[in-house]
Structures are given as C-alpha cells and as structure tokens.
Design a protein that fits this description.
single chain; about 190 residues; alpha+beta; 4-stranded antiparallel beta sheet; two-stranded antiparallel ribbon; 4 helices; ATP-binding
Length: about 190
C-alpha cells in the first residue's frame, strides 16, 4: 500500500497548522486566469457584438471581419492589398482573438497569410503601436484593420519587427519591393 496521502487537498491540514489547504480550482477562461468578473466578460461580449454589427453594416474599405464560428471572441479578417503598393492584388487573411477584458486590453491580431514586411514577422505577429502600448478602449476593430491596411502602404522601418527586411527597405528598396511583390504573388493570390 502506498504511503501517499490520498485525502482530497481541501481535507488535508499542513503540518503545524490547524487550517486546511484551500482547494485549487481551474479558473482559466480564454487562456487567462479568471480574475475577471462575469460583468467584465459581459462587457467584452456586448462590445464585441456591437463592433460586429457595425463592421457588418459598414465595413472598412477593402477589409472584412467576423466570428470564426460560435465563439464571439475568435474572428477572422481579410485585407486586400492597397492599390499602388507592393501588396496590390494580394488577399491577406488574419486571425483576431479578443481577450476577456476587451476593450480595456487590445485584441491579438496575426497574419495567417505569409507576407514580406518589416513590421510583420514569419509568425504573423504585427508590430503596430495600437495593438500594444498605444491601445485605447476608444479604438474599434474597424480602426485596427484600417491601421493594418495603412501599414501595408507605408511600413515603419524605424520600428521594425524584422530588422533585415527594414535594412533592405532602407538600403535597397528596389530589391525589397521585388521580393515583397514575389511573396504577394506566391502567398496572397
């Protein structure tokens, strides 16, 4: 017979104390600890529903977005490459995850389509201030998509996520543009 204590955690008392250990509960929700009340989740859900209605009724130019299925916190989005840019004629797919404390925390937005861009890495992570420190609850998913689309027209090599692409953009723009067009034709058309 094993000498392990088989009593439930909440029934055991640590040596030298008279109080039992508290029971541990799995409090994870949407990948984070559930320090958020049902009220904050309800706030997030209501806000996301409101944004879904707005983006469905009046989508940003050359963008679309909506839930992947029944989970209102998981969306997909599509952005068309801006005319006159190296991403022209490209169709770029993105994943959007809303945290339970949205809109007080930014959504997580990543590219699913490969793209040659100094502010977007190979995992699809986007380096743009409004998805980090520049986030404000006044921002909406429509504004986020417009900002990302604008980043496709005007990259920010001064704050790169991929330094080598930023260097190429600054030192050999012709080669950069050629590679970006090739990637757009290969992965986004």
């Amino acid at each position: 017979m094993s000498s392990r204590n088989t009593q439930p955690v909440e029934d055991r008392t640590p040596e030298g104390t008279s109080r039992p250990l508290p029971a541990k509960k799995d409090t994870r929700k949407h990948g984070t600890s559930q320090r958020f009340t049902s009220r904050s989740v309800s706030t997030a859900s209501k806000r996301i529903q409101k944004e879904l209605a707005a983006i469905t009724l009046d989508p940003p130019p050359n963008c679309s977005a909506g839930p992947k299925g029944d989970d209102i916190y998981e969306w997909y989005a599509t952005i068309l490459g801006p005319p006159g840019s190296v991403y022209e004629k490209g169709v770029f797919f993105l994943d959007i995850h809303f945290p339970p404390d949205y809109p007080f925390k930014p959504p997580k937005v990543t590219f699913r389509t490969r793209i040659y861009h100094c502010n977007i890495n190979s995992k699809g992570v986007i380096c743009i201030d409004i998805l980090k420190d520049g986030w404000s609850p006044a921002l909406t998913m429509s504004k986020v998509l417009l900002s990302i689309r604008s980043l496709l027209s005007d990259c920010n090599p001064d704050d790169p996520l991929v330094g080598s692409i930023a260097t190429e953009y600054l030192q050999n723009k012709e080669q950069h543009d050629k590679t970006a067009r090739e990637w757009t034709n290969r992965y986004a058309t």
